[in-house]
Amino acid sequence: METKNKITDAAEKLFFKYGITSISVDDITHELSISKKTFYENFANKSDLINQITMGFLRKIDKVLDDIENQEGIIDKIIALYTFLLELFKTCNASFIYDIKKYYPDIFKMFDEYKDNILKKLVIALINKGKKDEVFVDDFEPDIIFSMHWKRFNNIIERELLPQKKLFDPVFQKMIRSSLIGISTLKGHKIIDEKFNQLNKS
Predict the structure, then answer these.
(1) Better-scored residue on pLDDT, 90 or 48
(2) d(CA 10, CA 111)
(3) Could you list the residue range(s) of the whole structural domain that residue 153 is in?
(4) Rounded to a whole number, what is the largest CA-CA distance in the chain?
(5) Residue 88 lies inside a defined structural domain of this protein
(6) What is the count of structural domains for the chain?
């Protein structure tokens, strides 16, 4: 199991940095100074490795989403979610996303279904709770807000909006802040201002 974990960790870093098609099994074994025999004792092939990385990736997200649920307020939860996703994808090259979409559609489908079944439900639940708590205004559809937020985040993941993906980059903070302010009540505006002032001081 230790060897298998070392392979998945090393491969994930290489795939994120250079894309999937640019990295071969030989590259991975060379990186770890192991034999191809060792590789194939742990994985059936490269596709199996990518699938294992994906499953591990989703398990990481599950664990952190549970932690985010324990955050005190709605705004705290949403900021924590954005922050976590940025941290998760900050080393991800756009080539990785492109390669998954083009060459591994079944694996990309897993990501997509996870987004719709887990992330979307979580964000919509947070938005609806924010409406109930009078932090968010009531005259918008949560589905539309989620779609807008996810499109922006995709632009970050693919480095179109935030090339360096730095957590405290002004663009990142403005993106979250403007997204939240646009759906917030005056009560929500005050909470958002307080949270971002705290972030900038920390």
Answers:
(1) 48
(2) 21
(3) 47-201
(4) 63
(5) yes
(6) 1
- Between CA 45 and CA 49 the distance in angstroms is 7
For residue 35, being part of any structural domain is answered with no
Does 110 map to a domain?
Answer: yes
**Banded model confidence at residue 89, pLDDT cuts 50, 70, 90:** confident
Encode 89-110: b = buried (16+ Cβ within 10 Å), e = exposed.
beebbebbbebbeeebeebbeb
CB distance 32 to 10 below 8 Å? yes
CATH of the domain at 146: 1.10.357.10
Instruction: Examine residue 185 and state whether it is found in any structural domain, yes or no.
Output: yes
Q: How far apart are CA 128 and CA 143, in angstroms?
A: 11
User: Helices (DSSP H) in 19-141: which residue ranges?
Assistant: 25-32, 36-42, 46-69, 74-89, 94-103, 105-114, 120-132
Length of the chain: 202
* 143 C-beta neighbours (distance < 10 Å), count: 12
Choose among 147, 24, 16, 142: nearest CA to 91. 16
Closest to 140 measured CA to CA, from 186, 183, 201: 183
Average pLDDT of the segment spanning 65-73: 82
- DSSP letter (8 states) at residue 92: -
Q: What is the pLDDT of residue 159?
A: 56
